[in-house]
Amino acid sequence: MPVRPEELLGQALDGDESAFVALLDLLEQPVYAYFRRRRVSPEDAEDLTQQVFLTLLNAGARFDERRGVLRGFVFGIARRVWLKHMTSAGRLPSSLPTEVLDASSETPDSAADRAEQSALVVAAIDGLPERARDVLTLRFHQGLSIAEIADAMSLPENTVKSHLFRARTQLRESIGSKLDIKEGH
User: Fold this and answer.
1) For the segment 88-106, what is each residue's pLDDT rounded down to a tens digit?
2) Which pTM was predicted?
3) What is the C-alpha to C-alpha distance for residues 95 and 1, in angstroms, rounded to an integer?
């Protein structure tokens, strides 16, 4: 039976280097992917991912398993690291790369259509309030559960659900008619 991430953190905080390496193996790629989806350059994403794990080592004792799972705690750190990075760089946050839609088997016309659709989706997501963008990114790109998002963002689960519902509704209203999306699809 594999060791739970929460147990690995405890062992790593007790000085077990192999437990920390195992924790890195488990969570490093998803954290890096989170930064890349937030339009951070590959080099900065590597640096920010390293900051997340250094912060985890320094602040890991504050993790309380009764309040949530480690994955939510780690993505909470990642979100704060990203916000600090964006603030210090003076850039506006954005949540999706322009390669939103599938590019397989496309003609020049479909490539142009895809690029236009992608730009509409990115613009619509960028128009969402910051918390809604964060909820969408954590839910659909990182695959976090509602409980994990609530833990990562220090919000009640019902608030996360509300942000998710409003974000979907706003996206549907914003781009639905432009992309000819029907209600319920």
Assistant:
1) 777 644 444 434 333 444 4
2) 0.60
3) 36
Q: Which amino acid type is present at position 144?
A: L
Spatial distance between the Cα atoms of 105 and 110, rounded to a whole number of angstroms: 9
> Is the predicted pLDDT of residue 44 greater than 90, yes or no?
yes
Amino acid 10 reads G
- In the chain the domains, ranked by start, together with CATH numbers, are 1-93 (1.10.1740.10), 104-185 (1.10.10.10)
pLDDT in tens, 114-168: 566 667 777 777 788 888 888 888 888 778 889 888 888 888 999 999 998 888 8
Cβ atoms within 10 A of the Cβ of 68, count?
20
CA distance to 27, 80, 86, 142, 176, per residue, from 120 (Å): 32, 27, 23, 22, 10
Q: Which amino acid is at 150?
A: A
The torsion angles phi and psi of 143, rounded to 5 degrees, stand at 70, 25
